[in-house]
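Moderator note: this is an archived Q&A kept for reference. The question asked for a predicted structure of one protein chain; the sequence and the answer are reproduced below.
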Amino acid sequence: MLQSDIPGVPRRQGKVRDVYDLGDTLVIVATDRVSAFDWVIPPGIPGKGKILTAMAKFWFDLLKVPNHYLSDDVSSLPAAFQPHATELAGRTMIVKKTTVVPIECVARGYILGTGWKEYRQSGTVCGIPLPAGLKEADRLPEPIFTPATKAETGHDENISFERMVQEVGQETADELRSKTLDVYRRAAEYAEKRGIILADTKLEWGRLPSGEIILIDEVLTPDSSRFWPKESYRPGGSPPSFDKQFLRDWLETTTWDKASPPPELPADIVAKTAAKYREALERLTR
């Protein structure tokens, strides 16, 4: 991956992606960095950036939702990028620049994670009442929309729809809820036919200068969604998944306090995590 800035091009480095600003467009580079518990965990997952980029492009094309993707043609980038063309190929998207809506738009079809934690305490998720007696990882009667605030550092915070309305206005909140649930339902139906349960997903949306709201960022990848193999799904616990759960589980067995630099991943955990990402892409796109 690029270890330095491109001369003359502003760069913002996230945990796992680098974003270069070309003025009216952005260049998003998906690296092989991997994050867990709000830390970047060395040494990374080989091929991860290319897998996530391929998956996002696949979903953009399949769903036909207005989105920010323009091209993956590295040769069309300014000359300053060309010495790095080999590194950038397959993991780069050139996209429209938007004003990002400051809400994480989450659709849940199953109950797990922070939703399960809230449900056990109050019988709700983001203030939405749910039926009594649900088990962990149970399928919900209908998918629900559970927004969250976008955090620069630390974890996003689940909020109620009413709080979202206060943040972005009623019209935008209604539109984002409708768009998010539509994407989730169609993607979940497609994935299930290929043996994958899409338990939940987090989407981001941005507004063009024209006012149109479009889908941005990565979409429906194992980093932004929970994918479970359908053949081994059983409610009552946390199912196996096509993501970095191997990695998280291993970290939990160490003495790492999550407040200091993390340990390096052993080779077998890196290999297993990479295999899960590859399998998810292969199942979905075959």
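Archived answer notes: Residues 170-193 form the longest helix (24 residues).
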